From TrEMBL:
Residues 289-393 form the HTH araC/xylS-type domain. One of its GO terms (molecular function) is sequence-specific DNA binding. It comes from the Bacteria. The chain crosses the membrane at residues 6-27, 39-60, 80-98, 110-130, 191-217, 229-250. This is HTH araC/xylS-type domain-containing protein. It comes from Microbulbifer agarilyticus. SMART domains: HTH_ARAC (SM00342). The lineage of its organism: Bacteria, Pseudomonadati, Pseudomonadota, Gammaproteobacteria, Cellvibrionales. Keywords: DNA-binding, Membrane, Transcription, Transcription regulation, Transmembrane, Transmembrane helix.
Amino acid sequence: MKLVLFNAHDIVLFLTVYLCLLFALIAAIGRRSYGWGNVWLGAFLLSQALVALHVLALWGEAFHVWVVAHAPWVFAASEASLWIEGPLLLLYTRSVLFTQAGFRRKDLTLLFPLGLYAIFYFGAFFYYGVSEGSPVLQFLRSDSVQFYEHCRNLTRAGFGVWAFWTIKSYEPRMSNVYSNVDHLSYRWLKVLVFGFIALRLWNILYLSIYTSFNFVLGEGAIQKSDLDGVGIASNYGQLLLISGLLYYGFGVANGVQKVTQEVLDEVADPKVGGGNADERAPYTQEQIRRVTRYMESSRPYLNSNLKLEDLASQVSLSPKLLSNLINREFECNFFEFINRYRISEVKQFLADPALQDQSVMDLAMRAGYNSKTTFNRLFKIDTGMTPTQYRKMEPLSEVAS
């Protein structure tokens, strides 16, 4: 006798489980190369495997029967994943944005959802017992489960919003710590996090329709099975989301420049003169001269990947002090400060007769630029003309003098 455990739609969930487990293993193997980014990516993928398994165990007809008979622990383990996936998404998001994004003491608050689930689990265990099967499954079949599911789904979506807000609040501050920002695009990460939020809101919509209809029309007016199409669409969306995460998580994310979150949080506000004077890091005239001399003699701006942390280390200042010095003495942020020197360097290159056979972009790259768009924009802001126009004007200036 043949036992059919999966139907066509179940295969989508099974494929999601397989992909997540496979790439979670790959992430674990690559931990030494990519650090905490791979740790949190692997943990999040593992949680997504359990989320898909949760749906399979609850709604896959033949598979549900098999799990009840042979592996009832699956219900408790997979239900826990619904509470922990949000914190793991947030931790992974931080690891993409920041270096040294490990688990800190203040991150213990992220375990709060798991603590809530532990309270629920032991409550269900003592109330239902195990004589009639998994206590978690018994509770999920009860009439009072809707409020619990609403709280759980809102928590999941809430952590997604938190992760999205983390990205949005990070982007405006990039110019405080990076000298080149064009290659620091987090659009892919925002799309993935937004997709996570959308799928969790879709689940809330599904449950809200079910609850509302039964409240208005009377208990039993609609069954969850009547809304199978909504759930199936969510399963396909989940596979699409995971596919995007695998492509970008193992490709783009590992090659991105990063700074520590502490540095980004402590650097001075980009609005010059803003904030309380008592909160600004003090500096001396000697330190101003030290920075100026180093910029002119060592030309660190030629490094296209120069970060605030790097320059601070080179001039023996803290990132916070250096940022404050640049903001107040040079009336600009770090990005603008470095690119002033780069523009000046390009001007010298363009005026040098020995370099006339080199293209403008080659000279820009020698000066530390890695984006033609950014270079042209900043050059025109500084000079009022394009680099090509400037190069043609320079010989005329020499003749006039």
